[in-house]
Automatic annotation (TrEMBL):
GO MF assignments: aminoacyltransferase activity
One Gene Ontology biological process: cell wall organization
SUPFAM superfamilies cross-referenced by the UniProt entry: Acyl-CoA N-acyltransferases (Nat)
Keywords, ordered alphabetically: Acyltransferase, Cell shape, Cell wall biogenesis/degradation, Peptidoglycan synthesis, Transferase
Family stated for the protein in its record: Belongs to the FemABX family.
Database matches in InterPro entries: Acyl_CoA_acyltransferase, FEMABX, PG_Glycine_Bridge_Synth
Gene3D superfamilies the UniProt entry points to: 3.40.630.30
Protein name, per record: Peptidoglycan bridge formation glycyltransferase FemA/FemB family protein
Length: 372
């Protein structure tokens, strides 16, 4: 295992059917507060695995948390993960890492939309884990078992120093169980009646959806700030989205898209989509309060789903959901919006830490605890 160049990394990702956009070389430019390095696993001269490592320095000392968000991109299906992870840890330790954090892109459980909906309706159910899954992944169970044996520690899925990634996502499969592509009619039929009605309502109201350019990011951001004020979250600055746009487009001209839904000239919804190989993501979204009745959010999502289908994507990923199914929890509204698409709730293996220097790692945990 050794460092690789951004072009090598980019070529490797391009040859994969799917990889997280957080493991593309372009993502390094989106996180300038972290030092970045592309690393590769070689079998002879052949590059067989790759990872984007983000190094976050501890205050006042040259020791780093080495973070591989939703990565690395290796073969997770075998029963000898140590052969992959040991050389990675050795390399990162030599770079000054006091701990390694990674997020294996491995699914452990899936639930159908109907199961999630029934869980929300059941007063006895509080969390997704209380519901028997549609599927348990043997590969996922094998990965978790091996990580425990190798001394890795599973982390909470909540934010903190690493800005951790969601463990639970909601996804719409765009291929069937046999790998055949679903049609638009198939996907639409899988949605609930409210989603189908809202898509028709937007069309009847004259909502027009089109892709935007970099110059339209300002309009997206204005609506996004409005959404943040309404929904009580802290918005990212416009410069973040401009940097993301430039960095991801430099990797691949089809990597990132801006979608804009307008009604009678007014911007009513806007979203950012990302695609790597056969995996398409809904990454950020914004919507107006004044014209919610024209259902711009449903219209723009349907346009993105249709585009993902046309591009040959196998999955449309609506990104994170919380595990709560408590009907009184304010996060349930977002889950219900996503469940209406008829997709699946998906649990990943989560994020895992390996302490390299236990004393510094313990101090790091105390630092996090004090930060609350």
């Amino acid at each position: 295992m050794r460092p690789i160049s951004a072009p090598q990394h980019r070529e490797f990702i391009a040859g994969r059917s799917s990889a997280s956009f957080l493991q593309t070389p372009g993502w390094a430019s989106v996180k300038p507060e972290w030092r970045a390095e592309s690393v590769g696993w070689f079998r002879g001269a052949e590059l067989v695995g790759a990872g984007l490592v983000l190094y976050r320095q501890l205050p006042k000392v040259k020791r780093y948390l080495a973070y591989l968000p939703e990565g690395p991109v290796i073969d997770w299906s075998g029963d000898d993960l140590e052969a992959w992870l040991a050389p990675m840890v050795a390399h990162l330790k030599a770079q000054g890492a006091f701990a390694v954090r990674m997020g294996p892109p491995v699914v452990t459980r899936r639930w159908s939309a109907d199961q999630v909906k029934a869980g929300v309706a059941d007063d006895a159910v509080r969390r997704l884990g209380d519901v028997s899954p549609l599927e348990r992944s043997q590969d996922g169970a094998c990965v978790i078992s091996q990580l425990h044996e190798l001394g890795w520690q599973q982390q909470s899925a909540e934010g903190g120093f690493s800005a951790g990634q969601p463990q639970f996502n909601f996804q719409i499969p765009l291929v069937d169980a046999d790998g055949a592509s679903r049609t638009e009619a198939d996907v639409l039929a899988g949605m609930n009646q409210l989603w189908r009605r809202n898509i028709k309502k937007a069309d009847k109201a004259g909502v027009e959806v089109a892709q935007g350019e970099r110059a339209d990011l300002k309009a997206f951001h204005d609506l996004y700030v409005h959404t943040a004020e309404r929904d009580h979250f802290t918005p990212r600055p416009l410069s973040y989205f401009q940097t993301m746009w430039d960095a991801l487009l430099a990797d691949d001209p089809d990597r990132i898209q801006l979608w804009l839904a307008r009604h009678e000239g007014d911007l009513v919804a806007a979203t950012i989509a990302i695609r790597v190989g056969t995996h398409a993501w809904y990454s950020y979204g914004a919507s107006s309060t004044e014209k919610r009745d024209v259902r711009g959010s449903n219209a723009v999502q349907w346009a993105m789903i249709r585009d993902a289908l046309a591009a040959g994507a196998h999955v449309y990923d609506l990104r994170g959901i919380t595990e709560t199914l408590d009907s009184e929890d304010p996060h349930v509204g977002l889950i219900q919006f996503k469940v209406g698409t008829g997709g699946q709730a998906v649990e990943y293996a989560g994020e895992w830490d390996l302490p390299v220097n236990r004393a510094i790692y313990k101090a790091f945990q105390l630092y996090l605890a004090r930060r609350g």
